[in-house]
Amino acid sequence: MWRGSKSTRPDRWRRVAHAGTVPMLALAAVLGACSDMAVLPISAGTGPNPTLPEPRSALIPTVNIAPAKGWPAGVTPKAALGMRVVAFARNLDHPRWLYVLPNGDVLVAETNAPPKPDDAQGIRGWLMGLVMQRAGAAVPSANRITLLRDTNGDGIADVRSVLLAGLNSPFGMALVGNRLYVANSDAVWSFPYASGDTQIVASGTRVVALPAGPINHHWTKNLIASADGSKLYVSVGSNSNVAERGMAAEAERAAVWEVDAHSGDHRVFASGLRNPVGLSWEPHSGALWTVVNERDELGSDLVPDYLTSVRDGGFYGWPYSYYGQHVDKRVTPQRPDRVAQALAPDYALGPHTASLGLASSVGTTLPAAFANGMFVGQHGSWNRRPHSGYKVVFVPFEGARPSGAAPVDVLTGFLSPDGDAWGRPVGVALDRQGALLVADDVGNVVWRVSTGR
After folding, report:
1. With contact defined as beta carbons under 8 Å apart, do 323 and 317 qualify?
2. Helix (H) or strand (E) holding 192
3. Among candidate residues 400, 394, 406, 338, the one with its CA nearest the CA of residue 369
4. pLDDT (tens digit, 9 = 90+) per residue, 245-258?
5. Which candidate in 49, 66, 325, 373 could, as Cys together with 397 as Cys, close a disulfide (CB 3.0–4.6 Å)?
6. How far apart are CA 100 and CA 103, in angstroms?
7. Which domains does the chain have, with CATH numbers?
8. What is the per-residue pLDDT across 232-286, written as a single tens digit (0 to 9) for each?
């Protein structure tokens, strides 16, 4: 079974990388001078009833990059009061996503975007290449899943092994019985697994192909299994910002799929979700929840990313409307019939926070205030002034619903005082001891947050 070759940066980005950083700095300064400034505080765009101002458009979109630097020696993120943070594992290669096996082993998807030649055309594509490079997102993909094991229970991994190699920009992972399911950027695969395995050499089986191709704009494909393991729910992001490539390029995208784990048959479970990434089951109701990255180029105050339950057959607006039935006038042709069907999300997470990671807190050993709710990894903005995100937050729940006007900070300090990115949090998960694990794809670290100082 071919799992995909190790991806490399396209030639045009390789030439840009070799051109030096001075032109990039100059370009960033020019674009920054043209950027629009947020009028509202980030708190206005959070909670169950966010403020949604009038859209603002500009000839040059807002670009405000936090340059990726990595962590200085001796510096770590800052955990909330009553908690401490340590490096569970360092020197990883762009760790993006996490999955904890029943025996306590931690799987890390070391991954980045696959080649997307048709997503890098024209001035806009060239500019986005510069943005991604400066933000630390243009490194070649390691295309592997690494296993981390803490054999002595000290909160630091002391065993590391490549579980799977030769994948194609892997992301989501789920174990069902003796099969490990992996969502590559273009397909879901399953592999044989036995408890304690540190390496899988057997060929995998393709379960279902996923939308991909030479654009594959939102390439991260996540998955989660149903309680009985018969179904997989797979997140598939849109192929554009607001369908500017036409709806034919968006077939079965901006959606969550339901996939039969045995046959591979699938259907669109919910749609109109621009870029759903994190998936989690809410344990009280059994409902599926997701975090969604909303659209760009409407100003620094729009549109809030969000956390929402995912209804079977639900339509959440993209591309025709945002945050329920707020019409996006840029989209043609307009579809008032679809807008009338759009569901409003449950909880706003702030504009441009790039909320990606999601994990239920049930079973955590963190302080009691974090006993019921969802942890969210916010990768951080590149197109808002001032920056937003760059932290891990907690959304408290009452019963099966979010409560509170704003999320609670759990792990902060990913930005330097000068606005550089020391790290960028992505995936979050609870380990077998109930501590919180956080994948940091700029710092190349998995952080562990636990009680104590």
Report:
1. yes
2. strand 187-192
3. 394
4. 999 999 999 999 99
5. 373
6. 8
7. 11-451 (2.120.10.30)
8. 999 999 999 999 999 999 999 999 999 999 999 999 999 999 999 999 999 999 9
